[in-house]
Amino acid sequence: MDRRNIKGVALDVDGTLLHSGEHVAAPIAAACEELVQAGIWLTLMSARPATSIARIARQIGSGGPWGALNGALVVDREMKIRARSSIPEAAACRLIARCAELPHISTCIYSAFDLYTPAFDRRVASEAEIVDSDLKIGLLGLDPASVDKILLMADPVEVSGVMEALGGLREDVCISVSKPGYIEISHQLAGKGWALTQCAIEKKLDLSSVAVVGDGENDVDMFRVSGFSAAMSHSPLRVRAAAKVVLDESENALATFLRTLIPKGASSQAASS
Questions:
Q1: Cβ count within 10 A of residue 243
Q2: Cα–Cα distance between 84 and 235 in angstroms, integer?
């Protein structure tokens, strides 16, 4: 489709909007601000929890709603849950029990705005710091019927073995790799594509008028439902093959691409969000 007909833009966070640290680079933030001023809806779709997404969204002027926890949770700027797709209770119980049997694996369990771990280690500590979540050590208080996402962290070389070990537990869930060493588990109907669809319905936008940018395997689901998709240059081959375009390797590639979505002569206006 003609990029100039884009009415909304959805961005992945880690590896796309952010490459290091928690601050959006100035050229990207400026391009995002121009999109919003032109009246284009701007949202974030991330594996991160909602509180972390909201903090980053403020840097780019995105008013939401946003897709969190790999698309299992949709929240608005007031942090109210607009849509949710939790892992079925029986499946959550089986997965948590199986993960406890796997060696060298770190586990984080997200339930709405809460983060639990059955065992604390350096990877869990790093994850909690990155997403700025209040970590609960132990599963006391966790309702298995409200598990939205299970995150497994392992050395990248061990990921294929972990995926194989979970092979018999795929019923009712989607298991994907978001970045090297990170395995995301959520409801089979959830995902960034589902979350983007819920957001578009709320914004009364046709998905054919929404462009998305991502870099991970969990972004492909979002590529499929959108009108235009772009993959970062460092994305895995499967992700690049699924996108309409692949951005170049320049430092400001994302900012440059976002500006191509702004209609010529678009007047600055307050975006409806």
A1: 22
A2: 28
d(C-alpha 36, C-alpha 63), whole Å? 9
Please give the Cα distance from 142 to 152 (Å, whole number). Answer: 17
- Tens of pLDDT along 16-57? 999 877 899 999 999 999 999 999 999 999 999 999 999 999
What pTM was estimated for this model as a whole?
0.88
Tell me how many degrees the CA angle 193-15-113 measures, rounded to the nearest 5.
Answer: 60
Q: Residue 167's pLDDT is what?
A: 84
| Interatomic CA distance for residues 106 and 123, integer angstroms | 7
The average pLDDT across 159-173 equals 89
Q: Where are the alpha helices (DSSP H) in 135-247?
A: 159-165, 192-203, 220-225, 237-242
Q: CA 123 → CA 21, 143, 155, 203, 268, distances in Å?
A: 16, 23, 10, 37, 44
